[in-house]
Amino acid sequence: MVVGLGQCSLDILGSLGQYPPVDSKCDLDKVLIQGGGPVATALVTLARLGVPGVFLGCVGDDDFGRRIARGLEREKVDCRHLLVESGASSQFSFVAVEQDGGRRTIFCHRGSCRPLIEDDLPAEMICSSRLLHLDGSHPAAALAAARLARANGVITVLDGGSWRPGIEELLPLIDHLVVSGRFAEHWVPGRPVQEILPVLLGFGCQAATVTNGEAGSHTQSRDGESFHLPAFSVKSVDTTGCGDVFHGGYLFGLLQNWSLLRTVRFSAACAAIKSTALGGRTAIPTLLAVEDFLSR
Amino acid sequence: MVVGLGQCSLDILGSLGQYPPVDSKCDLDKVLIQGGGPVATALVTLARLGVPGVFLGCVGDDDFGRRIARGLEREKVDCRHLLVESGASSQFSFVAVEQDGGRRTIFCHRGSCRPLIEDDLPAEMICSSRLLHLDGSHPAAALAAARLARANGVITVLDGGSWRPGIEELLPLIDHLVVSGRFAEHWVPGRPVQEILPVLLGFGCQAATVTNGEAGSHTQSRDGESFHLPAFSVKSVDTTGCGDVFHGGYLFGLLQNWSLLRTVRFSAACAAIKSTALGGRTAIPTLLAVEDFLSR
């Protein structure tokens, strides 16, 4: 079983010709409303690949929260431990996506839900799972969950999107660090990724990967394995959620006990396929679709 | 009775420090969801001033459409002729508002509702009303409604926001043109407003006003009256909907048979008060509040 603890949000995506200057008005050609959030979308990916997981997080009891929960349940993500906070507003993002090339600008509202704490965690479920996926949100609960995981031989994976206070405490409890270039930059500003990876490994993980969108990814393991994978070349329509989907693929690879190289290549394929349609989840592939893509 | 025929939308307003560059991510400090649209918000203004009107327009049978209708009904705007189109998506805008100064950038999706046509109009209701307010949307229905109004001595007012094809047909049927600087620019590009007003009067209206936000408004009447009013000085938080609220005040002045000067001054006060809070409708004043503001 896979347990994910992190953010979930409602994304309103609008596609447009060109991102407008301040104080002007522009028309959106298309609007799409769907769930988002790093851990939530990683679990949706995993479910489409055939492995339903359990999501731990929080929504408000508003229209947006109901849509978030409905979206996860429809994808067969187990939401029985999703906290619904009375009177709170759910996390929401408006994402402006340029039609040509898929550059996206995100306006994110964190909402007013309280972060989960240790007492909110289904401890037994975490202890008996194979993987725990985190995104650095709900810091107190994430720390408690990672400690439980470590004590019970559960493999931990962290999606490091942007640096957050308190993340240093979490890092030594993580087995697989898969982080954005922006997150990596925080530790060794202005240095090439080859110098950043050893720093990340220094926190004690088994493997660290830095993803950089179209520039591909760099991976290094504690065993000395090291490789760069270019991104797959596809006609990208929307890069929203590409990182989240990469993580879903990575979790899948870990479950299969694949080599690191095969896992990262599979993850990159999932992300590339996802980018071919508007929305963070629209084009998340099935296992068959990824295999087909990789065999071309 | 006042009948308004035009746009209604759902606005999601997010306040932020500074409008972000393309391809970045920014946090919204506050999010507010409320109804918008030129004619719909003008009717909300009129209702708060004490005169409930009838709204003619269209929404989809989606979450957004239900919120739009609920918002109008709560403000005592008569929605019995609001068309709810099955399977269509409602008009929606995301509005990014800078905290300092209230500059707003609008991302608008027109939705997929069909425009109203002549057969959708409650003809008797229009014929027996005192005022008909239009915003140039639903062109075929607007033209038919304006003809009915003209034939039955109903005063017509047009909110000209941006120029639309077909508006030339409508203009000769309008008694009061209250348009944005951008709309005026279409007719006489690059000329000072003093030269634009006679052009607008040339379409046959009784009075034409061009509003220019903080630069105030210019008005000219067929009788030769002409004046410039500076905008009231207030601490502006959000300029969304200021034009719509100006129109609501203008409709109110017409109903009272006030002089043009008094009507425009009252309208400008309504718009100024509105700008002091986030949202197109949040701070729309009551009659008492406008009188208090003007007597200071």
TrEMBL record, chains A, B:
Pfam families per UniProt: PfkB (PF00294)
Gene Ontology molecular function: any one: catalytic activity
The Carbohydrate kinase PfkB domain, residue ranges: 33-286
Recorded superkingdom: Bacteria
Protein's recorded name: Carbohydrate kinase PfkB domain-containing protein
Organism: Syntrophotalea acetylenivorans
Native organism taxonomy: Bacteria, Pseudomonadati, Thermodesulfobacteriota, Desulfuromonadia, Desulfuromonadales
